[in-house]
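Hi V.,

You were right to ask for the full record rather than a summary. Here it is.
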Amino acid sequence: MSEELKECPSCESPYGYATGENQYSCPECSFEWTVEQTPTSTDELIVMDCNGVQLQTGDSVVVIKDLPVKGMPKSIKSGTKVKNIRLTFGDHNIDCKIDGFGAMGLKSEFVKKA
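Predicted structure:
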């Protein structure tokens, strides 16, 4: 039974189980994938926007909601376009520069690909 369990490529849960021939499902995040979709490198960074579209370094994104910024009197407004993002590991997985705010980190769940 343990040889059927695969690591989930989305949340890295070790409990991915077979749902068919070469098809797997994760009980923790409900992500479904096939063996062909499994990344070959575990060091590969996969970042998805709020709509589930994969982001790449250098993409442009749009902020989907007003985001308060610590130490600043104003927030980043919804609809702000951010160009040339850089993907990083961690909680705030997008590094970028925003006009009027400078360099900062954003969470991918609050942006969509432009």
